[in-house]
Request: fold
Amino acid sequence: MFRQPARLKEAYDVVIIGGGGHGLAAAYYLARDYGITDVAVLEKGYIGGGNTGRNTAIVRSNYLTVEGVKFYDESVRLFAELSQDLDLNLFYSQRGHFTLAHADSTLRTMRWRAEVNKHLGVNSYLVTPEEIHKICPYIDLNCGGRTPIVGALYHPPGSVVRHDAVAWGYAREADRRGVEIHQKTLVTGIDLRDQRVVGVQTDRGYIRTNKVLSAVAGYTPRITRMLGLRTPLVIQPLQACVSEPLKPWLDNIVVSANLHIYVSQSARGELVMGASLDPYELHSERSTLDFAEGFADHLLDLFPFLYDVKVNRQWAGMSDMTPDYSPIMGTTPIHGFYLDAGWGTWGFKATPVCGTTMAYTVAKGRNHELISAFNLDRFKNFSLVGEKGAASVGH
Amino acid sequence: MKLLRCPVNGLRPLSEFLFGGEVREMPAAETAADDEWADYVFNRQGEPGVRKEWWYHTASGTWFIAERDNLKDEFVRTYLYSPGATAAEAK
Reply:
């Protein structure tokens, strides 16, 4: 789908570290919208092999903060037309997204979310247990009597997308415009002169450049350490799994904040399922039985008839968590070094909008207005963006 | 099952413990510059390595310190907190 150049050039206008969806999208929009095609994307493994291929492929915009809702809504808009734009079928499938509430306190946060969403033009509203039953009759509303469902936030535009194809589509179209994609290329250092980027060291040679974009999610602290740049990021694994294929029965995406699970059914019939973060910091993509046990326990509260369904695959990704559940994006104190990080459990759905806003930021050297609230300096200034609408946040 | 040695109760299943984050030195609140204080409040050592961390044994209410390799997911040693304590003394 794209060229595989035999060697690195001596210099590029822009070097992008990380060949996941975010990095490749930024490369694509740099080429398409700004005519910047002398770009190298450096990927230590293979494209889309990190969190781009490890998430549960859900896209939605029913967040809580004004900054978050505007940002993710632009992403949903871009996703809806992305198959056309990239000339590749991404299997974009609008499903409707339920966030179930099992307690009054949860319902209160959801009412808040729904009002913020409506105010910003996002289709999102509260539904009663009866309405949930009508749209998705398979849920046990009583949850075995333990944690009865008292309502839900319903978000009709909620969708699933074939996540690998997003990386492939961006890669192919960026490549077609002249961007070089270098797989199996590890960045080992970034050279600075007077706090300005002058070059990148890799295990395949040295590159001169004045602009570096880091889009490496769980590996971000290893990159920022090369620069002596301190951030609030900590890494925790997020696990997910798929079941054996079943006949189609689940049209919607079902999330429970209280039970900490989310589930949808893929086009080939597998249930795609995830839960909350592993409970401590770890730089590993290992799977655990603890996750599978805890997850299955909660899933069966919602769908008891799945008791004999088998788990086919289980995996993990490394989430770069921020204290306010918002990303860290844009310029940094180092001239020519741009960050696209802090993607925790909410990164995949932001892929297109990260591409457009980071391309703008790298091309112009100043932050796009949609991401200015997400700058690294918000911590120094004590102006956080508390995003309680993020996945894995309990209420 | 993964096990962790509580300095008071011995080897117990990891599910009995809670992670309390990196052990950090608090700067003097009265004299710290704003930047220094913000750095203390928010910034962390995010890159992999052997870290000193707070852990809590929920069954007995014991806070203690564990040194852990967060790349290999291996505990190196655990000991009770005492100001200025070193790992060697705590063993």
Observations:
- The CA atoms of residues 21 and 53 of chain B lie 5 Å apart.
- The mean pLDDT of chain B is 92.
- The interface with chain A takes residues 15, 18-19, 34-35, 38-39, 41-48, 51, 53, 70-71, 73 of chain B (CB under 8 Å).
- Chain B has one domain: 3-90.
